[in-house]
Structure formats: C-alpha cells, structure tokens
User: What shape does this take?
Amino acid sequence: MSHEFERNHRIVVLGGGPGGYEAALTGRQEGAEVVLVERAGVGGSAVLTDVVPSKTLIATAQATGAIGRIAKLGVRYSVPNGSGRPVQPDVAVDLRAVNARLRKLARQQSDDMRTQLEEAGVRIVEGVGRLDGPGRVIVSSGRGRTAHDFDEIEADTTVVAVGASPRRLPTAMPDGERILTWTQLYELDEVPEHIIVVGSGVTGAEFASAYMQLGSEVTLISSRDRVLPGEDEDAARLLEEVFTRGGMHVLGRSRAVKVERQGDEVVATLDDGREVRGSHCLMAVGSIPNTAGIGLEEAGVQLDASGHIRVNRVGSTSRPSIYAAGDCTTFLPLASVASQQGRTAVFHAMGDAVTPTELRNVTSNIFTAPEIATVGWTQKQIEDGIAQGEIYKLPLASNPRAKMLSLQDGFVKLFARTGSGTVIGGVIASPRASELILPIALAVEHRLTVDQLARAFSVYPSLSGAITDAARAMHIVA
Assistant: This one.
C-alpha cells in the first residue's frame, strides 16, 4: 500500500510470541513501520518453553508407546545375545538427549522466526516494554544490554502480546529440580521414577500421558471428579480409562494443599490429610497473564479480575489505539487464536478489511494418547438447550483402518443442526486427531450439511473415513 498515512504509521508490538509475531509481519505487509519488543526471544514462551518443546516431548513419548504396541500387529523385535540367541531388548529413554533435541528445535524455530521478521523489515528490540500512556512505549534493557536508540518509542498503534506464565502457589513453590513448572521440565536428565502431576486440565493431562509412555510411574491429582473437566465428557472418560489401564494413579476429587521437597522425594499433602510421595512433582495449576506492571491500567486499558486484557473480536481494547492478542487476553489461550488475533488487530488498526474472530469455529486439540480434538458447539451446550442439534457418535473400533492399526480407543462424534443438518460441531478422540479434525472444521466454517460432508470422497481404508461414515449415518431425509 502506498498511502502516506500507512507509510508513516508506526506500530509497536510488545511480545514476540505467535500473536506478536503475526502482528509484526502483518504491519509490514500493510506498509507500517514496526518495532517488536521481546525480552526472551522471538517466538516467546510458545516456541521456547511451551508449545514447541512440549509437543516435541509428547511426540517422543508417543513413539515410545508405539514400540510397546507393535506386538499386537504380529511384530517381534530382538537382538542376539552372546550365544547368538535372540532376546527382546529393553526400551530405554535417554531423557537428556530428548531434552537437548527439543531445546535445539525450539531455538531453531525462534531463529527462523527472527530471520523472517528481519527480512520483512521489522526492527527487533531486546528488552521489556512498558506503556507510557496510549502512544508511547518505554523499553528497559534486556540481557544486560542497553537499547539507547529505543528507550522511548512513539506508537500510533500498540499491540500487546505479552503472553502468560505458569501459576505458582506459595504452598508448592517450584525449585526447578524436584518441584517443577512445565517450563522447567526440559532440564531433567533422567525420566522421573514417579512424577506427581497436580492439575488435570489440558497441561496436566498432556504431561501425565507423556511421562506414562516414557516409563514413569504417574500420579495425577485432580480437584474435580474427572480429568479434563472442561472438555467433552465422553472423551474425558475415555482418556481416564486409558490412563488407569496404563497404570496411572488418578486421584479424583482430591486437592493438593501443599507440596514439599524432602531430600530426593516430594510429598504432596491432600486436603483430606493423605500424602502422596514421588520423585518429582509437576505443578499444572493454570497460568497468569504477564500484564502486571507494564502500564496498561495507567494507559486506560481495562483488565478483568484475573489480569487478562479485555478485547473484542478484532482485538480492540478499551483504548482505541491499543490492541491485544494471545494468552494475555480474555480470548482462548491457543497459539492459533493468538496468531489470528495479531493479524486481525493490525488489519483493523490500518483500516483494512477484517473478519472478526469467531471462537465457535476454532479447532483445539489435546495432545494426549489418544489425542482429543474439538470444534464448534459442544454436546453439553446441545443438551442444555443453548444450541439445537442432533448428536451421533461412531466408535473408532468399527473403522477398518483402525482395525488394521489395532486401534481400539477412540471415536468420531458429529453435531448437526436439527432440521437442516448443518454441521455445528464435532469431537474426535483418536491418534492424530489434530489432523483429522480439519474436515469437520471446514464443514463448520462453511456451514456444510452432513449430506454434503458425506458426499466427499474419503480414502478407503482411512481413519478419516470414520468422519464420512458418521456424516452418512446422520442423513437428513428430504
């Protein structure tokens, strides 16, 4: 674009995670001058300490688990011993090598993102940014270096994308060695003998699943009556069955009131007085936005009681020139949502055409084994009368490809509008559910009917065939 306003428009982005990264690139695409302020590294916690390393660890765990299941396929593996006779080898996980690899991958991803920003013409400042009113940002030096050229930056538009950090409880303070947050797990040199996971939400369930497959004894402490209390009940119940069958100790309706280190052990004390002893403890009790002390309230930006920035569907805050994106906002804390928020915010600020974010169309995935992917309206919302819909559930065990792969745990569930048959949501519990959910997401986004979805050709045999089979079963009679 060549308008004088756009050439001279300056955008300052606080935070280089998915939301800030996309906001910065979009700003340059729109012809604005863009300065990105980041204290830890481009990519933020999503790349350096959260999504990229955690999903890399989970991928390793799933590969480890697959080795133990190949006997069901008729495959035997062995090595010759000293006398030449075959013996079954032990499967060992070198966690030091695993963690070194995932840290390297995270750093490579961060470097790649930085290169893309620099090639696009984004000026990157290492340091901590703070709003000085609605149109100025003050940057304090980062990593021991000064940034004299950028101590004060004028901004026509500011995008706040500062992310969130693990919640720390005073009665269970992490020490980085035995009591850990999820950002500290990647320094471990050995697979924990017995890891206690406090918190059964998405983060707790993902790491509990991963470490069980890596060979740890796992105790999952949940204050609710089931794991994943905010997710689809059928999927959560299925996952808990898989956990229990795999030897995990799932303590439902149990609240950890204190976690202490005693030498090489940790002791979690429950609210009923019971004690759980293990070698390590992961505190997965939620996160808090990094919004304190950066001048938001002084600049007139409204926060909710938890400190999250209140935004609308285009990322606008209560201050017209200030936008926000990502985990620091009141939107869904997903990297994909943060990215779209960042793009949408800048498009709106620059007066370009914009499509407001529709949270009901957002796909999400829980990287457990099996994975759980969802999109659209939920079964509970339908049962509560919030949405009018029909529900159909197809067990994965009936799918021919699943039989070939010896997959028994999982299902495809579709929700369709009563009368019209328009697809309004779905749930997939399956290996690679994160990949399989896309056809349902497209159906929700484009308001396809179950008959239109069923007419798509799925490969035979394939796991995706379960989606068209489910849609075909929901045929709407004209």
Summary: The domain at 370-473 is CATH 3.30.390.30 (Enolase-like; domain 1). The first strand starts at residue 10 and ends at 14. The radius of gyration is 24 Å. The chain has three domains: 4-47+100-164+288-357, 179-285, 370-473.
